[in-house]
Design a protein that fits this description.
Shape: globular
Structural class: mainly alpha
Helix content: 55-70%
Oligomer: single chain
Number of strands: 0
CATH class of the largest domain: Mainly Alpha
Order of helices and strands: HHHHHHHHHHHHHHHH
Distance between the termini: 63 Å
Number of helices: 16
Mean pLDDT: 97
Low-confidence stretches: none
CATH topology of the largest domain: Leucine-rich Repeat Variant
């Protein structure tokens, strides 16, 4: 049994039938939904992380690619968590570049919000920040693919956590009117995170742009404001 087969077998041993039944509804894998056709075996994220901890250091990128191309959602998610571990643990700039290139080359398999959110800012966001290469994320924000756009905005989390908001604001405005609810939520979430780190800059941005924000984006962004201030924004009284 090779490493990929071992990982798949280990994940299968942790599969829960009730989760396998629930996850397709939770992750919108039904007909006509954004993750139509995605398949689940029912492994929770904490259990996936146990497998990741055991295997990340001895799995190759070629093997991660095999796991990442699986139709099974938990296989792909575990593959991405292993990739994050590899990126975070390596001290080699050459190895980091290789992992970033691998991520971009295989992004067609990063096709649900949890796959994006649990990997992109820890790899692409960090790399863009540390190499002073915001174009990496700006190019993704220009792509037509929904997941590329979500990768771009969520990757700015690495900047936001360090109190840098310019790139976030550019990418939010670039896709503010995107039609998909997943982008409305992501934009609002990252703006809320900006508010946690820089309230003055957040409020200035919000006052300037809240009238043009989709309702979901605005609601996510203002979630932590006082009830009265939230109502002022929602009713356009600012």
């Amino acid at each position: 049994m090779n490493t990929v087969q071992e990982i798949k077998s280990a994940l299968q041993d942790l599969a829960l039938p009730e989760k396998a039944e629930f996850f397709p509804r939770f992750f919108k894998a039904g007909k006509g939904q954004y993750a139509e056709g995605d398949q689940f075996i029912g492994v929770t994220v904490p259990d996936q992380r146990k497998i990741v901890k055991e295997y990340w250091s001895r799995i190759s990128l070629e093997e991660i690619a095999e796991l990442l191309s699986s139709k099974i959602h938990e296989h792909r998610h575990s593959a991405l968590l292993m990739l994050v571990s590899k990126y975070e643990k390596t001290k080699s700039e050459e190895a980091k570049e290789e992992i970033v290139g691998f991520y971009l080359k295989n992004k067609q398999f990063i096709n649900n919000w949890d796959l994006v959110d649990n990997s992109c800012y820890k790899i692409l966001g960090r790399h863009a920040y540390e190499t002073d290469n915001p174009e990496l994320l700006l190019k993704l924000a220009e792509e037509e693919n929904l997941w590329s756009k979500r990768i771009a905005i969520v990757s700015t989390m690495y900047y936001v956590k360090r109190g840098e908001f310019d790139l976030l604001k550019k990418i939010v405005l670039k896709n503010l009117q995107h039609p998909h609810d997943l982008m409305h939520k992501a934009n609002g979430w990252l703006l809320r995170e900006m508010g946690n780190k820089g309230e003055t800059e957040f409020m200035a941005f919000l006052k300037l742009h809240y009238h043009e924000m989709p309702r979901t984006t605005l609601r996510y962004a203002i979630e932590k404001l006082s009830p009265d201030l939230r109502q002022d924004f929602l009713k356009g009284r600012i």
